[in-house]
Amino acid sequence: MSLAIELSGKRALITGGGNGIGAEIGRALVRAGAHVWINDISQERASEIATELCAIGPGSASPVKADVTDPAKVLRMREETGPVDILVNNVGIPIGGFQLQKFVDSQPSDWDLSIWLNFGSVLHVTHAYVGAMTEAGFGRVITIVSDAGRKGERYQVIYGAAKAASMGFSRGLAAEVGKFGVTVNCVALGAMKTGPLIDVIANDPAFETKMARPYAVPRIGRTTDPAPLVAFLASDYAEWITGQTYPVDGGYVNAL
Ligand SMILES: NC(=O)c1ccc[n+]([C@@H]2O[C@H](COP(=O)([O-])OP(=O)(O)OC[C@H]3O[C@@H](n4cnc5c(N)ncnc54)[C@H](O)[C@@H]3O)[C@@H](O)[C@H]2O)c1
User: What local confidence, expressed as pLDDT, does residue 254 receive?
Assistant: First the structure.
């Protein structure tokens, strides 16, 4: 039995796919043969990654610009892409990174973006795409979450709460749509070497060593770490796996 992941003929959408973890998931899905819509709030990022993915093949890619925190723009994106078989709710960190802040020092107006990016977008994008999946009798919804929502992390209280909400949503939706061939899972990450952290580490290499200390496998994550699991969860092999959260975190949080 060959264990190669085969996604030829499948259409996928990755939110916030123009950088970091989402772009790497795009590479994995295109290598498996899928056509991948790369969504991003930045046309430039989406187009750059889609062009790169087309060159990788054997699958293909197209950019789709949309701010997924805006429900009307999500609906316009759905019109542009049509239905997909695989939805990866990857968006979660605003351009430039999010600010660490004590909850007590934060204001309600500080919470909105994190809640909309990490939970609101998951609801709206999934709502726009899952109906066609249930009608087609096949679908995969995979949401990228964080150990901040499993363990709880100081200074990331709202981010963690929004990620925890996405996990709860995924468990409930999984129970609704499993009978239609649609699975719904989450992949929970530890600290990843991407985005603004790359510059921080370049200026202070000792910081990377310090960050890696709590990890059983003593390094921080690479964007390539979660992509194979996402491709597997998207494949036919994973048809009886649903309602779960799978950590890719070097053993940082080794229990639910
Ligand atoms: N980076 C980490 O250390 C880390 C750790 C745990 C979990 N995660 C999760 O992994 C996922 C991906 O994170 P990343 O670090 O690769 O992010 P990133 O910042 O590298 O990339 C996110 C992409 O999303 C786009 N984007 C931002 N706001 C958008 C919006 N409103 N609509 C559409 N696109 C938008 C950005 O332009 C960017 O290209 C997120 O859900 C994040 O919470 C990341």
Answer: 83
159 carries an active-site annotation = yes
pTM, 2 dp = 0.98
- 256 CA to centre of ligand 1 in angstroms: 23
Substitution site in 25, 73, 88, 91 for ligand 1 pocket (most atoms within 8 Å of beta carbon)? 91
Alpha-carbon distance of 161 to 8, in angstroms, equals: 36
Domain segments of the chain as ranges = 11-191+225-248
| CATH node for 11-191+225-248 | 3.40.50.720
20 C-alpha to ligand 1 centroid (Å) = 7
DSSP, collapsed to helix, strand or coil, labels residue 39 as strand
In angstroms, the CA 36 to CA 52 distance is 12
Residue partners of 80: CB distance under 8 A and separation at least 6: 64
Block mean pLDDT (10 aa), the chain, length 256: 92 98 98 98 98 98 98 98 99 79 93 95 99 98 97 94 98 98 98 91 93 96 98 98 98 83
